[in-house]
Amino acid sequence: MKLVEKILIQLAIAHFVLLFIAQMLLEIPNFKLFTNKSIYYEGVIKDKKEPALETIDR
């Protein structure tokens, strides 16, 4: 049982370290642009305006 507890504690520590590193990387603006694809889908950084889509037929 002590072996299982030791492995779980090591996994928890490794998870915390990786989470901390990921949060630090997301604070870098240039790195955030490459990892967050929703910026491109939402059109936040597009320069040209595209026509709006109509959802209701008139």
Observed structural traits:
single chain, 58 residues, 3 helices, elongated
Report the end-to-end length measured between terminal Cα atoms: 69 Å
**Which secondary-structure class do the elements indicate?**
mainly alpha
Tally of DSSP helical segments: 3
Largest sheet: none
Radius of gyration equals: 22 Å
Overall shape:
elongated
Could you estimate the helical fraction of the residues in percent?
55-70%
SSE pattern: HHH
Mean pLDDT: 77
Strand content: under 5%
Count of distinct structural domains = 1
- The beta-strand count equals 0
Runs in which pLDDT lies below 50 for 5 or more consecutive residues are: none
Protein model, in words:
- This protein has helices at residues 2-26, 29-35, 38-42.
- The chain has one domain (2-42).
- Helix content is 64%, strand content 0%.
- The model has no long low-confidence stretch (mean pLDDT 77).
- The protein has 58 residues and is mainly alpha-helical.
